[in-house]
Amino acid sequence: MNDFGVYAYCGFDLPAEERFKKIKAAGFEKVAVWCHSDFNTNSGISEYEQFKFLREQSLGVSYAHCPIKYAPYLANKYYGAKEAVKTHKIYVKSAKEQGVSICVAHLPEVNAAVIDNVGEIAEFAEAQGVKLAFENLTGKAPFDELFRAVKNAYFCYDTCHALMFGDDSGEMAERYMDRLVATHLSDGDGVKDCHFMPGKGRYRFDSLAEKLKKGGYKGDFVLEAFQSSEYSDISEFLSEGKARLEEIFG
Ligand SMILES: [Zn+2]
Q1: Which of 48, 58, 61, 98 has the largest count of CB atoms under 10 Å?
Q2: Longest CA pairwise span in the chain (Å)
Q3: What's the confidence (pLDDT) of residue 43?
Q4: Residue 201 belongs to a domain with what CATH number?
Q5: Rounded to the nearest whole angstrom, what is the distance from the C-alpha of residue 21 to the centroid of ligand 1?
Protein backbone atom coordinates (compact mmCIF):
# COMPACT_ATOMS: atom_id res chain seq x y z
CA MET A 1 0.00 0.00 0.00
CA ASN A 2 1.20 3.51 -0.79
CA ASP A 3 1.35 5.95 2.13
CA PHE A 4 1.04 9.72 2.01
CA GLY A 5 3.97 11.74 3.29
CA VAL A 6 5.28 15.28 3.42
CA TYR A 7 8.72 16.87 3.58
CA ALA A 8 9.19 17.84 7.25
CA TYR A 9 10.31 21.44 6.75
CA CYS A 10 8.07 22.54 3.84
CA GLY A 11 9.15 26.16 4.31
CA PHE A 12 7.44 26.98 7.59
CA ASP A 13 9.49 28.05 10.61
CA LEU A 14 7.91 26.65 13.73
CA PRO A 15 9.06 24.47 16.64
CA ALA A 16 9.72 20.86 15.70
CA GLU A 17 7.25 19.38 18.16
CA GLU A 18 4.43 21.56 16.84
CA ARG A 19 5.39 20.80 13.23
CA PHE A 20 5.02 17.03 13.65
CA LYS A 21 1.72 17.41 15.55
CA LYS A 22 0.31 19.46 12.64
CA ILE A 23 1.56 16.96 10.06
CA LYS A 24 -0.20 14.17 11.96
CA ALA A 25 -3.37 16.26 12.35
CA ALA A 26 -3.47 16.86 8.57
CA GLY A 27 -3.70 13.09 8.06
CA PHE A 28 -0.23 12.26 6.73
CA GLU A 29 1.14 8.83 7.62
CA LYS A 30 4.81 9.57 6.96
CA VAL A 31 7.38 12.33 6.96
CA ALA A 32 10.46 12.84 4.80
CA VAL A 33 13.37 13.94 6.98
CA TRP A 34 16.98 15.02 6.59
CA CYS A 35 19.86 12.96 7.94
CA HIS A 36 22.24 15.01 10.02
CA SER A 37 21.91 18.78 10.08
CA ASP A 38 22.07 21.17 7.10
CA PHE A 39 18.39 21.63 6.06
CA ASN A 40 17.17 20.66 9.52
CA THR A 41 18.75 23.80 10.90
CA ASN A 42 16.00 25.73 9.08
CA SER A 43 13.51 24.25 11.49
CA GLY A 44 15.76 23.99 14.54
CA ILE A 45 15.44 20.20 14.66
CA SER A 46 18.42 18.10 15.60
CA GLU A 47 18.88 14.68 14.05
CA TYR A 48 17.72 12.75 17.10
CA GLU A 49 14.96 15.16 18.15
CA GLN A 50 13.16 14.72 14.85
CA PHE A 51 12.95 10.93 15.26
CA LYS A 52 11.77 11.33 18.87
CA PHE A 53 8.96 13.69 17.82
CA LEU A 54 8.03 11.42 14.92
CA ARG A 55 7.70 8.45 17.24
CA GLU A 56 5.63 10.49 19.70
CA GLN A 57 3.19 11.27 16.89
CA SER A 58 3.28 7.68 15.53
CA LEU A 59 4.45 8.99 12.18
CA GLY A 60 6.56 6.81 9.90
CA VAL A 61 9.61 7.96 7.96
CA SER A 62 9.24 7.84 4.20
CA TYR A 63 12.96 8.38 3.63
CA ALA A 64 15.89 10.30 5.07
CA HIS A 65 17.56 12.77 2.72
CA CYS A 66 21.36 12.82 2.81
CA PRO A 67 22.89 16.29 3.19
CA ILE A 68 23.97 17.64 -0.17
CA LYS A 69 27.24 19.31 0.78
CA TYR A 70 29.39 16.21 0.16
CA ALA A 71 27.63 15.15 -3.06
CA PRO A 72 29.95 17.09 -5.44
CA TYR A 73 32.98 15.15 -4.17
CA LEU A 74 31.41 11.88 -5.37
CA ALA A 75 32.34 12.95 -8.91
CA ASN A 76 36.03 13.04 -7.98
CA LYS A 77 38.42 10.14 -8.25
CA TYR A 78 40.78 11.55 -5.63
CA TYR A 79 40.07 14.92 -4.04
CA GLY A 80 37.55 14.54 -1.21
CA ALA A 81 36.13 11.31 -2.68
CA LYS A 82 37.10 8.97 0.17
CA GLU A 83 35.62 11.34 2.77
CA ALA A 84 32.42 11.74 0.73
CA VAL A 85 31.95 7.96 0.44
CA LYS A 86 32.63 7.50 4.16
CA THR A 87 30.21 10.30 5.08
CA HIS A 88 27.43 8.83 2.90
CA LYS A 89 27.96 5.47 4.61
CA ILE A 90 27.50 7.21 7.98
CA TYR A 91 24.20 8.75 6.78
CA VAL A 92 23.04 5.29 5.68
CA LYS A 93 24.09 3.67 8.96
CA SER A 94 22.45 6.37 11.03
CA ALA A 95 19.23 6.07 9.00
CA LYS A 96 19.27 2.29 9.51
CA GLU A 97 19.65 2.73 13.29
CA GLN A 98 16.54 4.93 13.26
CA GLY A 99 14.56 2.29 11.36
CA VAL A 100 14.61 4.16 8.06
CA SER A 101 14.76 1.97 4.96
CA ILE A 102 15.38 4.54 2.17
CA CYS A 103 18.04 7.26 1.87
CA VAL A 104 17.79 9.86 -0.90
CA ALA A 105 20.92 11.54 -2.21
CA HIS A 106 21.99 14.00 -4.90
CA LEU A 107 24.67 13.55 -7.55
CA PRO A 108 26.51 16.34 -9.38
CA GLU A 109 26.56 14.31 -12.64
CA VAL A 110 27.32 10.73 -13.65
CA ASN A 111 30.91 9.96 -14.56
CA ALA A 112 33.27 7.02 -14.00
CA ALA A 113 34.20 8.21 -10.49
CA VAL A 114 30.52 8.58 -9.52
CA ILE A 115 29.84 5.03 -10.70
CA ASP A 116 32.74 3.72 -8.57
CA ASN A 117 31.89 5.76 -5.49
CA VAL A 118 28.14 5.15 -5.68
CA GLY A 119 28.80 1.45 -6.28
CA GLU A 120 30.67 1.30 -2.98
CA ILE A 121 28.01 3.22 -1.00
CA ALA A 122 25.13 1.26 -2.58
CA GLU A 123 26.76 -2.05 -1.71
CA PHE A 124 27.18 -0.90 1.90
CA ALA A 125 23.54 0.32 1.95
CA GLU A 126 22.26 -3.00 0.61
CA ALA A 127 24.12 -4.89 3.34
CA GLN A 128 22.43 -2.60 5.89
CA GLY A 129 19.00 -3.23 4.34
CA VAL A 130 18.73 0.40 3.19
CA LYS A 131 17.86 1.44 -0.38
CA LEU A 132 20.01 4.30 -1.63
CA ALA A 133 17.99 6.39 -4.10
CA PHE A 134 19.14 9.25 -6.34
CA GLU A 135 16.95 12.21 -7.16
CA ASN A 136 16.70 13.65 -10.69
CA LEU A 137 18.01 17.22 -10.67
CA THR A 138 18.73 17.80 -14.36
CA GLY A 139 17.92 16.10 -17.65
CA LYS A 140 15.34 13.57 -18.77
CA ALA A 141 17.39 10.36 -18.51
CA PRO A 142 20.22 11.16 -16.10
CA PHE A 143 20.72 7.70 -14.62
CA ASP A 144 20.84 5.30 -17.61
CA GLU A 145 24.57 4.74 -17.21
CA LEU A 146 24.51 4.63 -13.41
CA PHE A 147 21.65 2.13 -13.19
CA ARG A 148 23.26 -0.07 -15.84
CA ALA A 149 26.48 -0.19 -13.83
CA VAL A 150 25.14 -0.22 -10.25
CA LYS A 151 22.40 -2.80 -9.72
CA ASN A 152 21.55 -1.74 -6.15
CA ALA A 153 21.07 2.02 -6.78
CA TYR A 154 17.48 3.32 -6.75
CA PHE A 155 15.46 6.27 -8.02
CA CYS A 156 13.61 9.16 -6.36
CA TYR A 157 11.39 10.95 -8.90
CA ASP A 158 11.05 14.73 -8.47
CA THR A 159 8.19 16.05 -10.62
CA CYS A 160 9.19 19.72 -10.42
CA HIS A 161 12.76 19.02 -11.57
CA ALA A 162 11.49 16.69 -14.33
CA LEU A 163 9.15 19.42 -15.61
CA MET A 164 12.10 21.82 -16.06
CA PHE A 165 13.60 19.31 -18.50
CA GLY A 166 10.48 18.52 -20.54
CA ASP A 167 8.91 15.63 -18.63
CA ASP A 168 5.45 16.84 -17.62
CA SER A 169 3.73 13.47 -17.25
CA GLY A 170 5.89 10.86 -15.51
CA GLU A 171 8.10 9.74 -18.40
CA MET A 172 11.10 9.41 -16.09
CA ALA A 173 9.14 7.46 -13.50
CA GLU A 174 8.16 5.06 -16.27
CA ARG A 175 11.75 4.87 -17.58
CA TYR A 176 13.15 3.94 -14.17
CA MET A 177 10.08 2.16 -12.72
CA ASP A 178 12.12 -0.90 -11.71
CA ARG A 179 14.32 1.37 -9.49
CA LEU A 180 11.62 3.79 -8.29
CA VAL A 181 11.27 3.81 -4.49
CA ALA A 182 10.47 7.45 -3.61
CA THR A 183 8.68 10.51 -4.97
CA HIS A 184 8.99 14.30 -4.54
CA LEU A 185 5.67 15.71 -5.65
CA SER A 186 5.29 19.38 -6.47
CA ASP A 187 4.32 21.54 -9.44
CA GLY A 188 6.16 24.15 -11.46
CA ASP A 189 6.13 26.48 -14.44
CA GLY A 190 8.61 24.32 -16.35
CA VAL A 191 11.30 27.00 -16.14
CA LYS A 192 12.21 27.51 -12.50
CA ASP A 193 12.54 25.18 -9.50
CA CYS A 194 9.15 26.33 -8.16
CA HIS A 195 7.91 23.53 -5.87
CA PHE A 196 4.29 24.76 -6.09
CA MET A 197 1.36 22.80 -4.68
CA PRO A 198 0.37 20.01 -7.15
CA GLY A 199 -2.28 21.44 -9.47
CA LYS A 200 -0.90 25.02 -9.40
CA GLY A 201 1.47 24.59 -12.33
CA ARG A 202 1.91 22.73 -15.61
CA TYR A 203 2.70 19.20 -14.45
CA ARG A 204 0.14 16.52 -15.50
CA PHE A 205 -0.27 14.61 -12.25
CA ASP A 206 -3.16 12.47 -13.53
CA SER A 207 -0.88 11.03 -16.16
CA LEU A 208 1.81 10.28 -13.54
CA ALA A 209 -0.80 8.59 -11.31
CA GLU A 210 -1.80 6.34 -14.20
CA LYS A 211 1.81 5.39 -14.95
CA LEU A 212 2.60 4.64 -11.29
CA LYS A 213 -0.49 2.46 -11.00
CA LYS A 214 0.33 0.61 -14.18
CA GLY A 215 3.95 0.14 -13.10
CA GLY A 216 2.94 -1.27 -9.72
CA TYR A 217 4.66 1.50 -7.71
CA LYS A 218 4.62 0.53 -4.03
CA GLY A 219 6.39 3.56 -2.53
CA ASP A 220 5.02 6.65 -0.83
CA PHE A 221 3.49 9.79 -2.33
CA VAL A 222 5.49 12.58 -0.74
CA LEU A 223 4.48 16.23 -1.01
CA GLU A 224 7.53 18.41 -1.62
CA ALA A 225 5.75 21.72 -2.17
CA PHE A 226 6.90 24.80 -0.24
CA GLN A 227 5.23 27.58 1.64
CA SER A 228 3.83 30.49 -0.38
CA SER A 229 1.87 33.63 0.47
CA GLU A 230 -1.37 31.80 -0.39
CA TYR A 231 -1.27 29.92 2.90
CA SER A 232 -1.91 31.65 6.20
CA ASP A 233 -0.26 28.88 8.20
CA ILE A 234 1.21 25.38 8.00
CA SER A 235 -2.12 23.66 8.82
CA GLU A 236 -3.88 25.24 5.84
CA PHE A 237 -0.92 24.31 3.62
CA LEU A 238 -0.81 20.70 4.87
CA SER A 239 -4.53 20.05 4.60
CA GLU A 240 -4.64 21.36 1.03
CA GLY A 241 -1.56 19.27 0.19
CA LYS A 242 -3.07 16.11 1.65
CA ALA A 243 -6.34 16.73 -0.21
CA ARG A 244 -4.50 17.27 -3.51
CA LEU A 245 -2.50 14.03 -3.11
CA GLU A 246 -5.68 12.09 -2.23
CA GLU A 247 -7.48 13.46 -5.31
CA ILE A 248 -4.62 12.54 -7.60
CA PHE A 249 -3.33 9.28 -6.19
CA GLY A 250 -6.02 8.07 -3.74
ZN1 LIG B 1 13.16 17.07 -4.51
Answers
A1: 61
A2: 49
A3: 54
A4: 3.20.20.150
A5: 23
